[in-house]
Specification:
Belongs to the glycosyl hydrolase 2 family. By secondary structure, the chain is mainly beta. It folds into five domains: 180 residues, Galactose-binding domain-like (Jelly Rolls), CATH 2.60.120.260; 105 residues, Immunoglobulin-like (Sandwich), CATH 2.60.40; 254 residues, TIM Barrel (Alpha-Beta Barrel), CATH 3.20.20; 77 residues, Immunoglobulins (Immunoglobulin-like), CATH 2.60.40.10; 107 residues, Immunoglobulins (Immunoglobulin-like, Sandwich). The chain is built from ten helices and 46 strands. The strands form eleven sheets. It has an eight-stranded parallel sheet. Strands 3-2-4-9-6-7 form a six-stranded antiparallel sheet, with no helix packed on it. The structure holds beta-D-galactopyranose (GAL). The site of beta-D-galactopyranose has 14 residues, from helix 5.
Amino acid sequence: MRKSTFSLVRRSSFVLLLLLCLYRLEGHAFERNLWDDGWRFAICQDDSPQQSVFDDSAWRLLDLPHDWAIEEDFHALHPSGANGGALPGGKGWYRKHLVLQDKDASSRYALHFDGAYMNTSVYVNSQLVGTRPYGFISFSFDLTPYLNKQGDNVIAVKVDNSHQPNSRWYTGCGIYRHVYLMKSTDVRVAQWGVQAITEVKKGVGNVMLNTQIENLSGRNRRLIVRQKVWNKNHEVVAQSSKALNVVASATMVSQQMRVQKPKLWSLSSPYLYTVTTEVLENDRVIDCDTFKLGLRTVKFDVQKGFFLNGENIKINGVCLHGDLGCLGAAINEDALHRQVKMMMEMGVNAIRCSHNPPAPELLNLCDSLGVLVVDESFDSWLQGKTPYDYSLYFKSWFERDLRDMVLRDRNHPSIILWSIGNEVLEQWNKVNNSGMALEDVNILLNNTRDKSALSQGDTLNLNSKLTQALAAIVRRYDPTRMITAGCNEVSPNNNLFKSGALDVIGFNYHQKKVKDVPQNFPGKPFLMTETVSALQTRGYYKMPSDSLFRMPGKKRPFTDPTFLCSSYDNSCAYWGSTHEQTWDVVKHTPYCAGQFIWTGFDYIGEPTPFNFPARSSYFGIIDLAGFPKDCYYMYQSEWTDKPVLHLFPHWNWIEGQTIDLWCYYNQADEVELFINGKSQGVRQKRNDHEYHVAWRVTFEPGEACVVARKNGKVVGEQARKTAGTPHHIRLTPNRQVLKANGRSLSFVSVEVVDKDGNLCPWAENNIHFSLSGDAKIAGVDNGSPFSLERFQANERCAFFGKCLVVVQAGKKPSNIQLTAKGVDLAPQTINIKSE
Ligand code: GAL
């Protein structure tokens, strides 16, 4: 009894403190409020909306995060090009009122953006507060000098994505991440101002907290900084307080704490502590800050690759861009969660945020689910890859942007490595890229260069010095992690390597050169920062499956009117490889810490090897709608303990046609294929360099069935049946209970099936959706990289038998009904609840 009262008290004081720190409760001197709701929005070319008197009453009312481009039609003439997703750019304005009744002269207000793409200018009461160019960085503006503290204020935000192209992939447009309004007093913990440096030694977790206190009051202040580490049971496991006299505008206070017998953060058990920092003056808490802390050790070893908590682990990673398919760039926690979970189920243990700092929610997810992260800053430095990209801003902004990335992210236990750039053109001495067509950028990137483009002699050139300067910035703010860069020039005379500033050698592609790494880079750990670039369309199979199709080939333009790429693992970009080829190298090379496959999910933009109407990628292991391609199961068979038996392709062909059947399997000695009961032979992987088995057979309708055996006993069976004509629709939601918070999502898979429930693999029926209850359709997709149907619609054609509808709960608890109908198909309805 006593104990439970005790723990109740303990729990409530923890929760109160957490709420205080996280949300800076209403009525306190400090507040942190999510400020997403109720913005007025319009696309507007001129700057009149910056004026407070501007009448925005006819503008649309919306909640952030928001991406205006995803709501529009694809078009060949949109200046972003197919590489940018063939969706529009433009200039968007957001406006909102801030009404204050604040008599406290010392209070301060800041507006914080997790991210807005791009060139974001904030105006308060008609005055420009500031502009931030980089569309992937988090930033804040101090509004205080511009505010009327007792009355109405007009906040206008201009997001300018009109200069196109400015990216090699789809970025989205608008305030696409969360926004916070922060209130504080004039003495506070600086933004991202607590740095945790941890070390685990002999059963003790040493936690050093370096805390930056800002004093904007212009006078001396006597303060106490009280810091606590809490475990998951809301018990304080370490704490320290320090009294200080804060004179200067900023003061650093360091406190060392010890967590006895710490629970480590690992992939299987990602234990998180909570750190709270309170600033007290005259016994009153005047500011508060909190973050999650994970105690773990990370090491890159020259011979053995990567170690987490002393355990040698292969980094089985994927690269991910930030868009969420049909939802666009607008961040949504449920959509991110679905992505990361699907990756984990495949066996992925790491994500490279390519090629920019991600939404903070992704890092939080990786912390709490146990996924490693490489956090990357830029896709270009001084030399641009597209006419209006970050290279235009690099000189003025790189120090600030790089600093802010490290400050924001450095306490995340999931982050194991910083990347200061991806395939930057400074790898070479001089690159002539003027007049380059967007679809040729990759060719430019992956051209082989002669020696004259590489570093000569022993003196370091400017590009090498720039590499050193960038690495020095990262080390200044985080001395604990190593630094890499994704390099597709793998000569040691690459200016970035030559600088000596990279701790971990990062190769993009060039798996055949991996064997030369110990000789070319003695004493350096090694990682494949980017690999594969296979090209696949879910559901499409190009035979013979043992021919390799490398595209686009060096001869341009490349055309293929199908706009399809084969889903046998027999199709890839010419600078890439098949999935099996690179995995074989990574698996059998102990000094290779691992790889990051390009890419985990398809993304909008970069439809290599095609151009418009193709407008999204073919590289994903999972398509844009979230349906796995076959190679998903190859990785699952290699990277997980789950039993895998995956036979493909489907079994609907022309009678007499020669068909290649492949099978991925594990945990079995052999597999045998039967066509309509007749054996087509037993197959087994002969050694650990083989990843699939195959049969070449003649199609006859009926059933292809594979049986797996271990020690002579059947351990698995999978059949592919010839489907009849499309008969009805099958709806499968990934969640049936949502939160009534206006953001919660259910991803509903839609399949066209025959009367017995077999997927019709060639079906292209148009499916119409309708909803009842407080909910809306957030997006539709089918995974086709060249469909020009809108993402925001209530209908979608099936693509190789499938499509997707995303249902978004409203704010009222509701019984939601989703109905799907199609011509000549029996409709289906499912129930989803929001509460
Ligand atoms: C790489 C580049 C990626 C993507 C990929 C496609 O060179 O780093 O961003 O473009 O090629 O194969």
